[in-house]
Amino acid sequence: MLKESIKMSWQNIINNKMRSFLTVLGVLIGVASVIALISIVQAVTTNITGQVMDMGANKVSVQLSGTPLKQGLTMGDINELETIENLKGVSPSVVGKTSIVYDGNVMEEVSVQGKNDVHFANTQDLVKSGRSINAIDVESGNRVCLVGQDIVKELFPSESPIDKKIIINGITYTVIGILQESSNLLAGSSNSEVIIPYTTAMSLLSTGYVSTIDFYIEDESLSESTTSNIESVLLSAFNYDENGYTITNMQNILDTVNEMTATMSLLLAGIAAISLIVGGIGIMNMMLVIVTERTTEIGLRKALGAKPSAIQIQFVLEALFLSLFGGIMGLLFGTTISFVGCLLIGVEFTLVSYAIPLAIGFAAAIGLVFGYAPAKRASKLNPIDALRSV
Question: I need a surface site. Which of 15, 35, 120, 371 has the fewest CB within 10 A?
């Protein structure tokens, strides 16, 4: 009996191709929307999370705004901070803008970053070619630098800048490396930067203070206590004035990003699910029309001994087939849209693991829920009343 019901349901769908397609269109759009939105949001989330991880989930950054009595941290303060337990590295930064010159060509307002060897050791894929700044460069105040891609294109269009001499703010520096081309949305671009040892930068930019300092934590489980110890030293350095600095814990940022994207995913999936409900209503409406059209058929089957449960199963199966077909097509369209969308926004496409069962499950649920009422109505038709239209 079930096999016969399946055969009849499928035959009715095949015999009305256009109507069947229009019926499943709502489910198709709904499933495609859910899959596309979830997949794209997941891809963007993975990209942002990866960027935060590249910046260092185990990193605590301190921005030093200073106070009227003290503009920033001195070398003595940095030495004291380096004694804090559970730190695998401390990276001070000095930032400024100046001009650079090579072979008579001048670039104005170039960002100069003073860094140390710890920064390069704890940040992946910074150097494209050449070498990074090492501890000897920092301790000796060597006049060496790394240049970004925009500077290479501007000043060295047809030659390698490695070992070339450039003039930064009137002082000659040797280029020891080229920075990787940057497209990092969170950390900013390094394409127009020159990086030199921070000890040299303090002299070049005529400052005795560092403007930013990064702390790399050894054991992330002790992140809070380590951050508290850092803050204690900073409070002492700035005479217990909390306005002199701002602490940013990258792990907290990562947790916040994950919470925000999870909420966004649920919100977008909920909005897309509305179109699934609309598609289900479309299926129910069409099934009610089909029941009305096939009143005579239902009456004849009942007069010949068909049970109400058999008729109900047939119409439920027909609604289920329609919704499942819409779900499968929606899955294909949604995956295609996700792939194209990820290409356009420049993130790596990954099909969410639960996308397929989600699409099929939603579609099946829509078919069963919205197909039940018309099927129930068909099964309750009085055969005498149904045959009056013959």
Answer: 15
